[in-house]
């Protein structure tokens, strides 16, 4: 008797939770399954004469371009770690702990490269410092030659490294903030200068954050797409993602099987890295318990190094932020540019006028805003549902979800977009065939379903919904981290108190957890807005009339060489991001963890 | 010989004044304790001396070196002050072993590796931790961590040792042992030290002189005996020791003596400060000075017992007016036994009753 009551109380089936779990797992694994399945076919899945085998792998492993892409991909990833981690660490220390000049306004500036699309940044470098860029022509006039070439592989690595410094900065800086200042004061009191404090105490004590940042940057290095697409093209430098993009038309027909095979290779590298990141993040959290007393420390005076450090940081800000953004802004407001052209002669807003005249571009802007504002809110709602399914319920389901949501993180956006394209092409096709002559044909209203359900399903692909779904799945791990952190801030006693006075789980969620996490959820919405505005690669393969976004249009217009329009769209993109960041900073939303 | 001088130090957190003109001196070989309730500015004063807080005005001089001078705007960075600090949290570097923690100041001073090793070992021996050099801080007990923190602050022979609540992170039992260890070490090495604490017992046990801080100012300073035995202000009298507090009205004042009158009682005592008849005043009597008599006597109150507590070495009895509320006349008294006579006459010796203006 007692045991039955007990089991009835602990066995608590929850239909909403089961539904959320099922939908989440489907959204994660169906596209992934398509990539795996397609990679073992000898032709795109919709062609009749395909067979199962390793043909696709054989083809790419015999392609010298593949190995070149692999090699430069790894060079880029290592370069990113070597450049961004030390710089990020020093920058974090300077901003968090010292009297670096102007460190108050540096903080929001540092976030700019995180939220501006790499496509826009890359384009900014081309128009600012490319062979006929603004700064290049001015340098030519000044020195008689251009002292840089941004299209060489080392230059691309340096640029990628400098623009990725913020990622290292964010993690190291948050570790430094939770590090007690007393351990640093102890070092100072026994005679260490600020530089010695940094090298002997501060940075070694945030070693877990440093190693996490290293793995993260290596991973981001493998994922670089936009920068390489823009900067690597002129001299033919490839990384795996751009190699995959170029494969699209390699054989004349869509070579989905080859792309899937390349994707598999890329995922084989990224999955272990994502799992390693997860482990390191846990260790970092454990390490954080071994720390001193957190007080509001007085900043370390840098003394004579103050202006040297300030100059180095200013130089970084100029190279990583000012140059590309200035390039975009300038280029957006001139009608043309070349050697010997005077800036004042070519000022115009023609590019913006032509955007207004082209419905595709106008739709791209509207779609981008919609996907950021409404799509961002919907994504937060979905992530909240998933987070609640896992919230303080340590069981098998939570464990499965916990690992599963990391999987999309390992699939670069470009591939995820491709996989979702296949999903939207294949599922209606398969259902249709099945209803016509397959095992679903036994259904009594099969022909009615074919007419009334399959067509709308096909239509989904050319609506912005397809892009939103892909975006939401790609950014699931990121969004869930934000939201579960927010939910965890609700003290467990508050939930336990509600249960003890008789609230059921659903009531606790509805009446206690969600209302208390409200402000955090609104902050997450703003962050998702920023992320969705920035996103460009996921929409590339889903691009069709109706699904245009600024990001995917930039990639496609870049290929056609429509520089004026690309500049104007990039400018609009930056404006959207700046508005979002402005609102976020105004309301004190933490833009990073 | 004066080791350290602080002159009229002012320090603000934002617009909030924390130190309002503090002056003090530390003689060589002397241990001075900064005592006070939380928020009195004692830790801030210590941190200002260490160079971890920036004062607004005033002067800090050590021997002949100016550490801070508000008038000329000179400030010596913390790392050049050559002071030893023991932090409240110990602030041991968790990524360095015990020996590395202690050796680090020597390394910064470019002491040769072999000498580093011998000096670290000497310090470890002094602290009774000879075999623990290779351990990491998180492998040590709280008391051992504290010794490492002291060792790290002593290894380069700084002229002055600064201790920020060194015993507060230890549990009660360990605290008494550490207190004895610290006092012995200070005497043996002839250290000059400034210690911050909020515990008056700790302050009296360890120091040669106590500075009592109250709201950013020095309330009173002197030897532990003077601070305990003849406090000059109500704040000082109440902060040191366990006290009975009797509010009343001054009835008469005469030659340093005053008579205080309450609701149905009258007491004679020492007049502290300027008192006028008719003025509200407070009598402070140390709990241990109250005597229990069977017979009615001079300067005594008769009250019924309301509670008794066993403290191990003695009993503490609480006497309260019959049918009295929470603010009624009450006295705490120590006694060797649980038994008290009934009725009980509580004698308050005249020189133990200090009457301060309220």
What low-confidence regions of chain A span 5 or more consecutive residues with pLDDT below 50? Answer: 1-11, 288-294
What structural class do you assign from the helix and strand content of chain B? alpha+beta
Q: Write out the CATH superfamily name of the largest domain in chain B.
A: P-loop containing nucleotide triphosphate hydrolases
The DSSP helix count of chain A reads 31
CATH topology of the largest domain in chain B: Rossmann fold
Number of domains of chain B: 2
Q: Biggest sheet of chain B: strands side by side, in what order? A: 7-8-9-3-10-11
E-strand count of chain A: 0
Please give the radius of gyration of chain A in angstroms: 26 Å
Give the oligomeric state: heterodimer
| N-to-C span of chain B | 40 Å
Distance between the termini of chain A: 49 Å
Provide the succession of SSEs of chain B.
EEEHEEEEHHHEHEHEEHHEEEEEEEEEEE
Q: Which percent range describes the beta-strand content of chain B?
A: 35-45%
Give the uncertain stretches of chain B in residue-range form: none
Interface with most residues = A-B, 25 and 32 residues
Q: What value does the average pLDDT of chain B take?
A: 90
The rounded Rg of chain B comes to 25 Å
**Most strands sheet of chain B:** 6 strands, mixed
> Helicity of chain B, in percent?
10-25%
Helix coverage percent of chain A = over 70%
